[in-house]
Automatic annotation (TrEMBL):
HflC and HflK could regulate a protease. One of its GO terms (molecular function) is peptidase activity. Pfam families: Band_7 (PF01145). It is a single-pass membrane protein. Keywords: Hydrolase, Membrane, Protease, Transmembrane, Transmembrane helix. The keyword Zinc-finger does not apply. GO terms for cellular component: membrane. SMART domains: PHB. This is Protein HflC. It comes from the Bacteria. InterPro entries: Band_7 (IPR001107), Band_7/SPFH_dom_sf (IPR036013), HflC (IPR010200). It is found in: Membrane.
């Protein structure tokens, strides 16, 4: 039979084997790369995902190998035309050499601090060589590539590869933006006043021309009307003269009837005339002859 001591020793030995085995295994995820340390000194770098072995007394540090973000706070830069810019930029990077990264900066937080300093310096260098218009409109893509290349060269010593640099916003400071806005507003108001003045002048020219043409048209119409009226009066007089020459008595009768129609209105039939006036000669005789008028001798 085994003694109790032997069983305890066996159990402790198995427990020790389990502990040593557990300490000798480590797992590398697909998004990580691992540095194996022996008493704080790097001895191996493992990039393949899966289960791996190490000495029980060694330790491991996992380093992310995905693309990482670097958000840079807004910085001021001065363009070559001496205009101040507020630049909001960000970068994307990955750790390509885990051992160099660990030996130079040690952690992602420290790397972000170092990269922020390098990015700000690259921004000021590149943007200081171009004008404000180049930054905000003309050469923005080229400038971002130049900044990325400079930052990538400087970050290479830390085992870092800079994938991309983007300028999210590049604008004048707030006080400068207000001044530019006011200047643009004043310029637009001046242009609007000039356009209104030109429009008023054009409207006055059109109105004057229309008035002149209207005056000419009215004058020509009046002249034509007078000519037509004169021609009508002449034709009327001719017809009257012709009618008078054909039958003088009828013509006299017609004119008297017209005078009666125009003179004797329903509202007022009063006349101030001599009793023997020729106006009423057709009242007493259809032939228009007065009683004292003697017939003509044959």
């Amino acid at each position: 039979m085994r003694s109790p001591v032997t069983g305890i020793v066996t159990l402790l030995a198995l427990l020790l084997v389990v502990i040593v085995g557990y300490m000798s295994l480590f797992t590398v995820q697909q998004t990580e790369q691992t540095i194996v340390l022996q008493f704080g000194r790097p001895v191996d770098v493992v990039t393949a995902p899966g289960l791996h072995f190490k000495a029980p007394w060694n330790s491991v540090i996992n380093i992310d190998k995905r693309i990482l973000d670097l958000e840079n706070p807004s910085q001021e830069a001065i363009a070559s035309d001496q205009k101040r810019l507020v630049v909001d930029a960000f970068a994307r990077y990955r750790i390509k050499d885990a051992l160099r990264f660990y030996q130079s900066v040690g952690s992602i937080q420290a790397a972000n601090i170092q990269l922020t300093t390098l990015l700000n310096a690259a921004l000021r260098r590149v943007l200081g060589e171009v004008t404000f218009i180049n930054v905000v409109r003309d050469d923005r893509e080229k400038l971002m590539l130049r900044i990325r290349d400079q930052l990538d060269r400087e970050a290479d010593g830390y085992g870092i590869q800079v994938v991309d640099v983007r300028i999210r916003r590049a604008d004048l400071p707030e006080q400068n933006s207000q001044a530019v806005y006011l200047r643009m507003k004043t310029e637009r108001e001046r242009e609007a006043a000039e356009f209104r003045a030109q429009g008023g002048q054009k409207a006055q020219e059109i109105k004057s021309k229309a008035d002149r043409e209207a005056t000419v048209i009215v004058a020509e119409a009046n002249s034509q009307a007078e000519q037509t009226r004169g021609a009508g009066d002449a034709e009327r007089n001719r017809l009257f003269a012709e009618a008078y020459s054909k039958d003088a008595d009828f013509f006299a009768f017609y004119r008297s009837m017209t005078a009666y129609e125009n003179g004797l209105k329903a509202s007022d039939t009063r006349f101030l005339l001599r009793p023997g006036s020729d106006f009423f000669r057709y009242f007493g005789s259809p032939s228009g002859k007065t009683a004292t008028e003697t017939p003509a001798k044959p």
